Amino acid sequence: MNKRVSPSLSGHKPSLSRRVLHGLKRDWQLYVLLLPLLTFIIIFHYLPMYGIQIAFRQYRFVDGITGSRWVGLKHFVDFVDAYFFGRLLSNTFLLNLLGLVIGFPIPVILAILLNQLERERFKKFTQTAIYVPHFISTAVIAGMLYLFLSPTSGIVNYFIRALGGQPVNFMMEASWFRPLFIISDIWQHAGWNTILYLATLTAIDQEVYEAATIDGATKRQKIRYIDLPYLVPIMVMLLILNAGGLLASNTDKALLMQTPGNISTSDIIGVYVYNMGLGKGQFSFTAAIGLFVNVINFFMIISVNWVAKRVSDTSLF
Q1: Cystine design at 177: which of 207, 209, 213, 262 (Cβ 3.0–4.6 Å)?
Q2: With contact defined as beta carbons under 8 Å apart, do 282 and 167 qualify?
Q3: What pTM was estimated for this model as a whole?
Q4: Lowest mean pLDDT among 60-69, 103-112, 122-131, 163-172
């Protein structure tokens, strides 16, 4: 008798199309659930890329995108050759670099400290308290800074005068813009950023801590030899993602905090794009700046990911 041998048993692999169809039939429910997300990404992330071409055109609203004159790399060259290019680039990069260096370790430290709390009620209360600032709008944060730091009625200057000092107009001094921007950003988002780290620490098997306790390990040793090794992979991945935003600041906040006195340090790329794009209607020029920034951020992610992969064997891709 002739027996029919299946392709898998005979050593012949099924074709790619058959494997795809088999996967669709087997997991069609999952693909249906995935469909709304894919549709959202295509509509709001890929279709708008059609408009990127205005960075290479002299866009006029009456002519439309394809009807506008093609100018190639003119807008990129104009931006790089502009006298303010160096100030915009250095201000943006320095603001984000300082924010990353100072602010990145703080959620890790908070997560480790929260993980050490033994009273569950106090732990939940603390978590809620440090999460709340994340939900305050940027406009309110800027308003709070102006209110608390006012040279006449601000509570900070009240204590400065009480200690015998002279009031400081923080919002008008260029040297105070970066510290205020970074500190307020850390206060607002550090607690929320502990969520991923706390989830990682919660997933650690409690038997590991029990074994360390039996061996006589102190809390400091548990943090060093148990908590930190578990946190390193997620720390590396978040560091790679954050490195991709070294030229992308919180434009809303910088715009609200900008004053005539601090413009030398608060004049960043995002604020300039806002003023030139919406203020003066130079859409092609600002589109070129946005594309320029995104390309640099992309290469930053690739570079940091490459270094992380070589150093720690942990990477996004």
Answers
A1: 262
A2: no
A3: 0.85
A4: 60-69
Residue 85 sits at the vertex; the CA angle it makes with 80 and 60, to the nearest 5 degrees, is 60
Q: Which two tokens stand for residue 98?
A: 């300082």
Q: Which CA distances in Å does 42 have to 35, 38, 47, 154?
A: 10, 6, 6, 48
For domain 83-312, give the CATH number: 1.10.3720.10
268 phi and psi angles, rounded to 5 deg: -110, 175
Locate the domains of the chain by residue range: 17-43+51-70, 83-312
| Pairing relationship of beta strands 68-70 and 57-60 according to DSSP bridges | antiparallel
> Alpha helix locations (H) across the chain?
7-10, 16-26, 28-41, 64-67, 74-81, 85-103, 105-116, 120-131, 138-148, 155-162, 177-189, 194-202, 206-214, 219-222, 228-243, 251-257, 263-266, 269-274, 283-312
Is 58 exposed, middle or buried (CB count within 10 Å of its CB: 0-12, 13-18, 19+)?
A: middle
Separation of alpha carbons 74 and 68, rounded Å:
14
Token code pair at residue 126: 């603390």
Nearest C-alpha neighbor of 173 from the set 94, 90, 88, 259: 259
* Per-residue pLDDT at 313: 78
Of 294, 114, 273, nearest to 190 by C-alpha is 114
